[in-house]
């Protein structure tokens, strides 16, 4: 039986950091070192200000760091000493060449595999935790075996991660399931068992699902595609609600009580964001096209198309309400992260919406409790709808309080569902705004009747709130 004593995790990001912290807390006898090529990221993991915000993470890192949890840039040394290596590197959408805008960019994964092969002097279990296209484990295996030193063998496992940002610690501690895919051979089963026995320290055995590698890889893409599809489905219905006078929250409640449908992931919004949903669906679409299954690809592509449309539809609605012009008007964006309880802005709907307003020459005022000004400027200057840093700096102001952001604004747009936005003093806010004062709740978190009685013009995703003249 293979016993794991030392673990190396390549990639100290949103997945590598939290998942290894929980693993370290649950397996105090195992030494876990998280490595990264980014010195600033590792420095931050070793400091009091961690590189990511995740509720409960600070305390857990402080508890384990220096005991059996380490963060280092010594990639080679850590690989050499490890029995098991998690590969948690980024696998973004490819932005060049064949498959541009859809396929996964496996550059970082391949670099990690080559490094493992070049360094390893003893057998290792290599665990693919990054989200990858089906059969990526094949590529990793070929690179490892082609470059292995004599006598060194590798077992490759697929162990996709299902944590969601903002709830990562709870998702890791109380995982619905852990998936482990591996080669269906005696050596493969031994490697699967070695990893399963680590998770079994805190996850009930019946929730540790083992399967063949390809099923495991495909299950991860499928899970994200299904979750994103639910958001796009309810968002599609939100448009029907606005047109008919139905209320999307009532519809969601009505269908969600059907146990076959379930109530989760039926919250209408300005569109899903985050580093995973769009990327993984596009990855799935590209896979289907490569497999000559264009109808399947088109089916899933529609989920992304609906998401794009929802963001654009919402922005058009705001501009139409603001008398068809936002030029030089102060538009306050409350929340820039892609969801609450994270500082992550990757693919955040707020980025797209802010870009639309900048293109219309609005003055965009942004407040988010966890997103820095630098991050906002980086996000808004990325190639896409707008790539002019000067225009961004002229058109965007970052505020350190919601009250300052909304002062003198023509409209407030709630882009992220931060809890603190629910308890703001809206009477005070109303008094300091231009009139008519508009508020657009893109997250369905505010008390719309109360806002209306204060005097706001209220517009909401998926329902009509009658105006007050
Ligand atoms: P991330 O960008 O936050 O972190 C990846 C890290 O890997 C970076 O710090 C980068 O410097 C490092 N890295 C890249 N190549 C390296 C190399 N060769 N050697 C050492 N370090 C290297 O990414 P993330 O959000 O943690 O995602 C990682 C993977 O997990 C992706 O495949 C993603 O799809 C998947 N995933 C992400 C989430 C999520 O919520 N973020 C959830 C589930 C799965
Ligand atoms: C997702 C998956 O949930 C997770 O299992 C996977 O490992 C990584 O991708 P994440 O992107 O961190 O996690 O957050 P999630 O809670 O899934 O939200 C994604 C986006 O959908 C957010 O922008 C969120 O606001 C939006 N969303 C979610 C809705 O608009 N409505 C909902 O009902 C649920």
UniProtKB/TrEMBL annotation:
Family annotation (NCBIfam families): NDP-sugDHase
Name of protein: UDP-glucose 6-dehydrogenase
Residues the record lists as binding NAD(+): 11-16, 36, 41, 89-93, 130-131, 165, 276-279, 346
Catalysed transformations (reactions): UDP-alpha-D-glucose + 2 NAD(+) + H2O = UDP-alpha-D-glucuronate + 2 NADH + 3 H(+)
Any Pfam family hit: UDPG_MGDP_dh
Entry's Gene Ontology cellular component terms: nucleus
Recorded coiled-coil stretches: none
Originating organism: Capsaspora owczarzaki (strain ATCC 30864)
């Amino acid at each position: 039986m293979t016993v794991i004593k030392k673990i190396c995790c390549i990639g100290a990001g949103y997945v590598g950091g939290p998942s290894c912290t929980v693993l370290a807390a649950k397996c105090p006898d195992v030494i876990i070192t998280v490595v990264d090529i980014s010195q600033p990221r590792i420095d931050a993991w070793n400091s009091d200000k961690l590189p990511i915000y995740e509720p409960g993470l600070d305390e857990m890192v402080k508890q384990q760091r220096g005991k059996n949890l380490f963060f280092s840039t010594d990639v080679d040394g850590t690989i050499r000493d490890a029995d098991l290596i998690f590969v948690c590197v980024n696998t973004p959408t490819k932005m060049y060449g064949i498959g541009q805008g859809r396929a996964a960019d496996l550059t970082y994964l391949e670099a990690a595999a080559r490094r493992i092969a070049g360094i390893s002097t003893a057998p290792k279990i290599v665990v693919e935790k990054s989200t990858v296209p089906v059969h990526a484990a094949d590529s990793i295996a070929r690179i490892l075996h082609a470059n292995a030193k004599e006598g060194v063998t590798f077992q490759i496992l697929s162990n996709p991660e299902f944590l969601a940002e903002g709830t990562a610690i709870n998702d890791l501690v109380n995982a619905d399931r852990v998936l482990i895919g591996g080669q269906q051979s005696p050596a493969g089963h031994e490697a699967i068992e070695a990893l399963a026995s680590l998770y079994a320290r805190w996850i009930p055995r019946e929730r540790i699902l083992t399967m063949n590698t390809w099923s495991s890889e495909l299950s991860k893409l499928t899970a994200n595609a299904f979750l994103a599809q639910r958001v796009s489905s309810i968002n599609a219905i939100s448009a029907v609600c606005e047109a008919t006078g139905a209320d999307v929250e009532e519809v969601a409640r009505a269908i969600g009580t059907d146990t076959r449908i379930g109530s989760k992931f039926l919250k209408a919004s300005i569109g899903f964001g985050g580093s995973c949903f769009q990327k993984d669906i596009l990855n799935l679409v590209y896979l289907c096209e490569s497999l000559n299954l264009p109808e399947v690809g088109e089916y899933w592509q529609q989920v992304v198309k609906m998401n794009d449309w929802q963001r654009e539809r919402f922005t058009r609605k705001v501009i139409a309400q603001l008398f068809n012009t936002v030029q030089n008007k102060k538009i306050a964006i409350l929340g820039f992260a892609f969801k609450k309880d994270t500082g992550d802005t990757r693919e955040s709907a707020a980025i797209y919406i802010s870009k639309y307003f900048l293109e219309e020459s609005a003055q965009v005022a942004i407040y988010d409790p966890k997103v820095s000004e630098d991050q906002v400027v980086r996000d808004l200057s990325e190639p896409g709808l707008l790539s002019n840093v000067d225009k961004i700096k002229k058109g965007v102001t970052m505020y350190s309080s919601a009250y300052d952001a909304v002062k003198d604004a023509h409209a407030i747009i709630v882009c992220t569902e931060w809890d603190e936005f629910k308890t703001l003093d809206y009477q005070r806010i109303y008094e300091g705004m231009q009139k008519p004062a508009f508020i657009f709740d893109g997250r369905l978190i505010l008390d719309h009747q109360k806002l209306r009685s204060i005097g706001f013009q209220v517009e909401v995703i998926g329902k009509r709130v009658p105006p007050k003249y």
